[in-house]
Backbone:
């Protein structure tokens, strides 16, 4: 099981999820482990000069990307746990 879990973690490191905020003005990409790999900011967002709004959009996009990565991780671990003969459910 430990080998399979390591394998899943390696696979998750290769997968990415992307989330956006502000109608796509800010995009954050995270790997399957939740580490942020890229941030894209539309030049229009910077041109507006509203730094507080831009900060909020970046935070929202990053939070959503990390949430999606956590859901991806939980789904993979759940698949692994469902194949094991436990007499009870493991908390995820």
Residues:
């Amino acid at each position: 099981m430990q080998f399979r879990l390591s394998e899943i973690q390696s696979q998750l490191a290769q997968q990415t999820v992307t989330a956006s905020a502000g109608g796509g003005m800010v995009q954050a990409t995270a790997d399957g482990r939740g580490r942020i790999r890229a941030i894209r900011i539309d030049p229009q967002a910077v041109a507006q000069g509203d730094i507080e709004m831009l900060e909020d959009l970046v935070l929202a996009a990053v939070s959503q990307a990390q949430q999606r990565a956590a859901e991806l991780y939980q789904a993979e671990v759940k698949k692994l746990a469902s194949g094991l003969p436990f007499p009870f459910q493991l908390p995820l």
About this structure: The chain has a mean pLDDT of 87. Residues 51-82 form the longest helix (32 residues).
